Amino acid sequence: MMRARLDDRGDRLVVVNMNAARRGALSPDLYDAITGAVEQAAQPRVRAVILTSEGGFFCAGGDLNVLIDRQSMGEDERRAQIEKLHERIRAIRACPVPVIAAVEGGAAGAGLSIALACDLIVAAEDAQFTAAYVKAGLVPDGGLTAALARSLPRPLAMEMCLLGRPVSAERMAALGAVNMLTAPGGAEAAAMELADALAEGPRRTQGAIRAMVAAAYDSAEAEQLNRERDAMARATGSAEAAEGIAAFLEKRKPDWS
């Protein structure tokens, strides 16, 4: 039984988490679909990757039955299993096109890590975001502590990690950690609208921007200034800049093709 699939929809690739019986828990199929999406995103026709789900819940994170089996493993073996998740987090971050999470129901544990690794998050108004590790005597992985520190005030990040309390999508949106709220059942459609908007822009320029913004969180200001200088020097001489500047001056819509 397949627990995830990759849908090719022309200018966007859609990763569908189908593990509804386990509230979208992590699976090898989900890992494979994410890897496939990021690899295929290198094709010029692709403008966005969307992560979504079936069954009304985005991703509940690690399957506790699987974690029970890991208790008999040596620590090096456990590290290797965790690295499979981390490889996908790195892949999402390094994707050449924007990645959008469409969150229905909620994102918990490593599912929250995956959602926060994306560039844009659309969430149903009744969705909840939970760092539930502490309730199982575990600590966050998947880059969650770094993502929460970048996205939320420190007291709320501590509340989520230390108490495991869910945070509503509305609160996450009010703090800027979620881009758009939708009625329940509407997250994927809203993510598609964002993908439509992205497809109207310059692909290479968008890729350069997302790379610079991502690097800014880990860089000193002087280093980031140099990165922006070099990227702007490249962009100014590009075909996209020539078309964009001409279209702006001529008061017309640019033709990015």
Highlighted features:
single chain; 257 residues; alpha/beta; 2-enoyl-CoA Hydratase, Chain A, domain 1; six-stranded mixed β-sheet; three-stranded mixed β-sheet; 49% helix; 15% strand; globular
Give average pLDDT, whole number: 93
Helix content: 40-55%
State the low-pLDDT regions, or none.
Answer: none
Number of domains: 2
Describe the structure.
The chain has 257 residues and is of the alpha/beta class. The chain has 2 domains: 4-199, 2-enoyl-CoA Hydratase, Chain A, domain 1, CATH 3.90.226.10; 203-249. It has helices spanning 28-40, 64-70, 75-94, 110-117, 144-151, 154-163, 169-174, 187-199, 203-216, 221-236, 239-249; strands at 4-8, 12-17, 48-53, 99-103, 106-108, 120-124, 128-130, 167-168, 180-182. The strands form 2 sheets. Strands 1-2-3-4-6-9 form a 6-stranded mixed β-sheet, sandwiched between helices. Helix 1 (28-40) links the parallel strand 2 (12-17) and strand 3. The termini are far apart.
